[in-house]
Amino acid sequence: MSHRSFSILKRVITHHPNSSHLLSFQRSVTYMPRPGDGAPRPVTLIPGDGIGPLVTGAVEQVMEAMHAPVHFEKYEVHGNMKQVPQEVLDSIRKNKVCLKGGLRTPVGGGVSSLNVQLRKELDLYASLVNCFNLPGLPTRHENVDIVVIRENTEGEYSGLEHEVVPGVVESLKVITKFCSERIAKYAFEYAYLNSRKKVTAVHKANIMKLADGLFLESCREVATKYPGIKFNEIIVDNCCMQLVSKPEQFDVMVTPNLYGNLVANTAAGIAGGTGVMPGGNVGADYAVFEQGASAGNVGNTNLVEQKRANPIALLLSSAMMLRHLQFPSFADRLETAIKFVIAEGKYRTKDLGGDSTTQQVVDAVIAALD
Amino acid sequence: MASQLVRRLARSRLDGILSSSSPNPSFFNRSFSSESNLIRATLFPGDGIGPEIAESVKQVFRTADVPIEWEEHYVGTEIDPRTQSFLTWESLESVRRNKVGLKGPMATPIGKGHRSLNLTLRKELNLYANVRPCYSLPGYKTKYDDVNLVTIRENTEGEYSGLEHQVVRGVVESLKIITRQASLRVAEYAFFYAKAHGRERVSAIHKANIMQKTDGLFLKCCREVAEKYPEIVYEEVVIDNCCMMLVKNPALFDVLVMPNLYGDIISDLCAGLIGGLGLTPSCNIGEGGVALAEAVHGSAPDIAGKVCIKETLILYS
């Protein structure tokens, strides 16, 4: 069976335009670990709300099947709690890595979003979403391979709102040089370490001259330190327009908080949907991996009852996590298996055009692991 | 052949715009009304490619026998002290009188001591809603063929209030203001437009899970207005979901109403879906029934002298 899958994979790879990702499994130079690197690493796991428990269950099953050197410490957190429990934060601080499902924020309920709270507490200042075409999944746009790096702590999501007089509400958007600089530095460092050629800053500085102007200045300063990487700027409305007509022109995009949300979701949509895009949040000390875009979207009750949620996004994010933990061969195996299942097309959930359940997709991925 | 198609569409679009601008119920039917009295409209040809496009518009309307009389106004070369900009008081008065206008692209000359021309028009005429219908054009193939939606964007407040200041060195604050009055106004217009054009659904786009008080106020106003129109389906969509749904399946949306910033981004996204800013009509609605249709694109001084497809957008406006 593995021989057959190997030949199918080879065919898939040679047809894939950007096959450099998949060629890594034909590794010629081996990864030499330090003694003791194989000891199982503890990772905090937060199932979350809605489809969260379903998809994190899927990840647990796949990790078991691979005998991956991670073991999960599960904690229950729900979106309607006032704040993230202290024990969860302590566990993440100890383990440094966390995998989570979505936390649903009640709309207009007066409770601040727990997703945002977690990011602020742990100072996870960069949110990364990788949007790329999966081979075999038909979409309207080809050649999409965009990474959106979004500032995660300030900007429009500062949460500072007040009612001036009845009927007039003000919301503060705060941009600081400190945060803009560090997100720009992270974006260029990411591009440098991943051999990316271009970084694009997304802004609206023609209208918000001071705020987005400060963001742009910081990006320009950091760009001078990386002469090998091209840097350009684009206004956010033009950016969205270009994304839906010519997405192949974008490589790495760095954005402030709100625009990043919109751009990441648009890019995820054109490349196949938020059900398949991996992503994570990272700070100086900790990393939290979750479904790429739309972390607050935990699906409707229908999806949960019928168990038809798409686990691909979280599975790919867990592959990202394995790479982050420096287990490259496990990450490669998982990624190859997932891409094989999607390319084959037999087991796809509703948002990709099929009608399988979560469990069927998970079983297919486990079967495809060699 | 193209001109016939354009003529037919121009007729129906003009009726659409006229019916949306005046509350007179006799304009609600979409058949071509043969009015014996002429409609007077103000025309600002604008800069760059503006005059060429304006000429084409006048030509097509003449051939289609549309009963319109144009009052042309050009942007002056010196600042009018009454309006603090290059637009003269007479131009503004003419728009206020005629209630209908058509504006070509205007380049704001860089200098000091005057307001941008678009900003002047918006503030003086109190244009509070920007309406952009986005239809997939049958002759122009893009990756999306089934787009048929209208975006209505609040035009005066929100994130574009222009109130920014530097608190300390390295920290900048920008104010986003949402008022009940402006939100009610644009929501009223959105539902009125939906009803007048036989649209079935209005979706309010927001980010109220994060910006609870500001977008929460906007949503509350939309809900209040929705109750007055029980035959129109009303829904609320978070903006990140909306972006994703728009690029995956634009047929899901009908009329979208949203605050200023989201409106800017979403309306340009929808323009991208149908083929770009050159093909998108746009109309600004002001208080007292003023309607100013405009060209969405810039003045493009580098391609002045070449006729391009962008003229179709003014015709559809």
Automatic annotation (TrEMBL), chain A:
It comes from the Eukaryota. One of its GO terms (molecular function) is isocitrate dehydrogenase (NAD+) activity. Coiled coil: none annotated. One of its GO terms (cellular component) is mitochondrion. Residues 42-365 form the Isopropylmalate dehydrogenase-like domain. InterPro entries: Isocitrate_DH_NAD (IPR004434), IsoPropMal-DH-like_dom (IPR024084). It is found in: Mitochondrion. Signal peptide: none annotated. Performs an essential role in the oxidative function of the citric acid cycle. PANTHER family: DECARBOXYLATING DEHYDROGENASES-ISOCITRATE, ISOPROPYLMALATE, TARTRATE, ISOCITRATE DEHYDROGENASE [NAD] SUBUNIT BETA, MITOCHONDRIAL. This is Isocitrate dehydrogenase [NAD] regulatory subunit 1, mitochondrial.
TrEMBL record, chain B:
Residues 40-314 form the Isopropylmalate dehydrogenase-like domain. It comes from the Eukaryota. Keywords: Oxidoreductase. SUPFAM superfamilies: Isocitrate/Isopropylmalate dehydrogenase-like. The keyword Oxidoreductase applies. The keyword tRNA processing does not apply. GO terms for biological process: isocitrate metabolic process; tricarboxylic acid cycle. GO terms for molecular function: isocitrate dehydrogenase (NAD+) activity; magnesium ion binding; NAD binding. Pfam families: Iso_dh. GO terms for cellular component: mitochondrion. InterPro entries: IsoCit/isopropylmalate_DH_CS, IsoPropMal-DH-like_dom. Belongs to the isocitrate and isopropylmalate dehydrogenases family. This is 3-isopropylmalate dehydrogenase, chloroplastic. It comes from Olea europaea subsp. europaea. The lineage of its organism: Eukaryota, Viridiplantae, Streptophyta, Embryophyta, Tracheophyta.
